[in-house]
Structure formats: structure tokens, C-alpha cells
Design brief:
Blueprint lengths: L1 H16 L1 H7 L16 H25 L2 H23 L8 H26 L2 H4 L12 H6 L5
Helix pairs in contact: 1-2, 1-3, 4-5
Length: 154
């Protein structure tokens, strides 16, 4: 989660500071300054999405620092949705083929997060004596707040 957060924030900063570099990373041909048609709001949309990426990156880093498992679980279906939408944008011709990398990044992130949560849940289900860790809340139905209030076995 922290790695994804740092990368999202960094790429967001790239979009804010060097929008043409960000467009090139996503497979779009940058338009030279002064060559944009009246009403072309590409840079405005890039600024908005880049700022959202910075914010999202910070949220992910903070969630990782807090070990907020509920947040981790929430990201999985929404990252799958993002993967689907971005992939369909390429398939339907709304985005260039290079943009498929963004969809793959989101899908891979969702898969990695789901696998990590499942593995942690299984370690927690084996009991603290076997795994060396306390019980995990991933997939257990218990909220993170419930687990914080419960005594921990170390």
C-alpha cells in the first residue's frame, strides 16, 4: 500500500510539474505549447487528475502507516473497477494503447492487495502460536476498532 501510495503521489507531482512528460508516460502525444485548439481542456483535466493522484497517494501512505486493513480491503473492488474502465477505454478507442498500462497497474495492484490480505488472514486463522503474529482482522468480520480494543497476544 505504501509503495503504491508513493508512486501515485510521485506520478501526480509529475503531472502537475511536467504535464507533457505525464501525457507521454500514458501513451498520449503531447501537444506543443500554443498549438492547442480553443476549448482544449486537456491540461486542466490533467491537473485535476494529477492532484487527485497526489491526494490518493497520501491517503494510501497514511493508511499503510496506520495498518488500516479496512481501507486495504475497500481498495480491491475499486481498483478492479478502475482496471476494467481503463482497459475498456483502450479497447473502445477512447484511449491509446499505451494507456492500457494504467489499467494493468490498477489490476495488478488489486490482485496483489487481495493476495496479501488473504495470506495475512490465513496466518491469523492459524493462531498466534503458529504464526508468531497476533490475529488478523482481514476477512474476519471484526472491525479494526474491535481488534484495537481487544487484548493482544504477543
Amino acid at each position: 500500500m505504501a509503495v503504491f501510495g508513493l508512486l501515485a503521489a510521485a506520478l501526480g507531482v509529475v503531472g502537475l510539474v511536467a504535464p507533457d512528460a505525464q501525457l507521454a508516460l500514458m501513451g498520449f502525444d503531447p501537444v506543443p505549447s500554443g498549438a492547442r485548439a480553443d476549448g482544449d481542456h486537456t491540461l486542466m483535466f490533467l491537473t485535476a487528475s494529477s492532484m487527485a493522484a497526489v491526494n490518493m497517494g497520501v491517503y494510501y501512505v497514511l493508511a499503510a502507516l496506520a495498518d488500516w486493513k479496512a481501507f486495504f480491503r475497500w481498495t480491491v473492488p475499486f481498483r478492479v473497477l478502475t482496471c476494467t474502465v481503463f482497459t475498456l477505454a483502450v479497447i473502445t478507442g477512447r484511449a491509446p494503447a499505451g494507456f492500457l498500462g494504467v489499467g494493468i497497474w490498477e489490476g495488478a495492484g488489486a490482485l496483489a492487495t487481495a493476495i496479501a490480505l488473504r495470506a495475512e488472514s490465513r496466518r491469523g486463522a492459524s493462531g498466534p502460536g503458529e504464526s508468531g503474529h497476533g490475529a488478523s482482522t482481514a476477512g474476519s468480520g471484526a472491525s479494526d476498532e474491535d481488534m484495537e480494543a481487544a487484548p493482544r497476544m504477543r
